[in-house]
Automatic annotation (TrEMBL):
Lineage: Bacteria, Bacillati, Actinomycetota, Actinomycetes, Streptosporangiales
InterPro entries noted in UniProt: HAD-like_sf, HAD_sf, OTSB-like, Trehalose_PPase
Summary of the function given for this chain in its UniProt record: Removes the phosphate from trehalose 6-phosphate to produce free trehalose.
Protein name: Trehalose 6-phosphate phosphatase
Gene designation: otsB
EC number, UniProt record: 3.1.3.12
UniProt entry tagged with the keyword Hydrolase: yes
Pfam assignment, any one: Trehalose_PPase
Amino acid sequence: MTTVPRPRTTEGSAALDRLLAEPSRAVLAFDFDGTLAPIVPDPRDARAYPGATAELARLSSLVASVVIITGRPAGLAVEYGGLDNIEGVVVLGQYGRERWEAGHLDAPEPPAGVQLVREELPDLLRRYDAPEGTWIEDKGHALAVHTRRTPDPDAALSLLRAPLTALAERADLTVEPGRMVIELRPPGMDKGTALTRFATERGATSLLYAGDDLGDLAAFDAVEQLREKGVPGLTVCSGSDEVTALADRADLIVDGPPGIADLLGSLRTALESAAPRD
């Protein structure tokens, strides 16, 4: 029989126990890239880890809500995750600025600063001699500079961090660091704010959030703040060798997207086993 892995902290264990005891009011929240989907050299090639989408679909009928909170445009996360035909899964894209639910996408217009960055970013990379392999991902509401395909990704990030920060300040945008990437995006919304609003909206009495990168720290903060308000929360790190900040704070660490898929399966099995039968 598959068992749900136990968190290493008292707070995480309490949250897991509440989730399993009262799933009808539990919210399960997940990052996409690096959590539900493996990190790949080109983000356009990212797809959900085999079996993860099917487990999300089954879990969505067993808990109050399943939500994916991602820096990607919501529509892309739906496409790459194969989520378009799954009932009960909500996708909050662009750190919560966009919302996809039941086939409908709600997306505001991006602020003017995004266009400024779009126009100036190629010249900035040329002026600072960004190494070969550096490339720009246009997310519509944000732009990201990736260095994963350069000979020395960390050195490329160090070279570009200061000029990108200066450009973001001129454009009234914020800088979001990540795994071999620096993103310039609108301020005022992050994964923590998005998670708090969603959990409150759904009346969650327990909460799980799983992520892998620095942008997920805000969601971990939100889980801790909700705990202080009486909502037990469990933080899960999709572990990697590239980022350790989340692992240091997580209640539970699993082995990347395969570990997340296994966790989904064990949760689903436990909830189905506990469900009353006619």
